[in-house]
Description:
Blueprint: E1 2-7, H1 10-17, E2 21-28, E3 31-38, E4 41-47, H2 52-64, E5 70-79, E6 89-97, E7 113-115, H3 118-131, E8 137-144, H4 152-162, E9 166-168, H5 171-180, E10 185-193, H6 207-224
Parallel strand pairs: 1-4, 1-5, 5-10, 6-8, 8-9
Antiparallel strand pairs: 2-3, 3-4, 5-9, 6-7, 6-10
Amino acid sequence: MTWGIISALPEEIALLRAHLTENEAKTIGGASYVQGRLYGQDVVLACSGAGTINAAACAGIVIREYGADAVIKVGLAGAAGEGLGVLDVVLSREVLFHDADTLLTQHYPFTLRFAADSRLVQLARRSCQSVAPQVQCRVGVVATGDQFVPGAEEKAAIIKKTAPDCIEMGAAAIGQIAYMNGVPFVAVCTLSDMADAGSGQQAENPVQPAANQSASIVIEMMKQAPGWDREGENA
């Protein structure tokens, strides 16, 4: 079994790569891929860069060229759900596009929403509770779009439209590619900001601590991975 692990951030990929053995790096289409073993699991790490097109391209390569049997999207996001704050974690029950025209639903795959694999959600939730018991870990909705939310007005519009728990820039694109290829996936999102006008302030935007936490959750997932696909279906 091969796990595809995709992040937009080189910081997260570097943290994960530090634990790899037998790693081999390659650049394809401007994105970096590293293949190796992570705590006994065959993995390919992909650094996509920001945006839905980059994320989708990486997902396609990870699945079609590297043969990933499951995909984990790991990354940072802005809090949108009530009661969530910085360094809390949202695990995708569902990913969706908040900025796509509904006209797209007239074409395959006929939806803008994609469900995560419930067994992967269970694995991610156990792993989050193990390495970060002090934070809130919520299974919920991840909204994706090709924009950094600049302020409260834009955030409110996205919440009104899609009622997400967090907002980011790649999970739904990866979810769509996984769906189209019949591959299970989950998104692990650590909240690095409140998705509002103050999000650009360094004090309110702890990128490195959030990246450390996300990487730690994925590492724990690999440690607990044996038997994940035989678990029950209720997330």
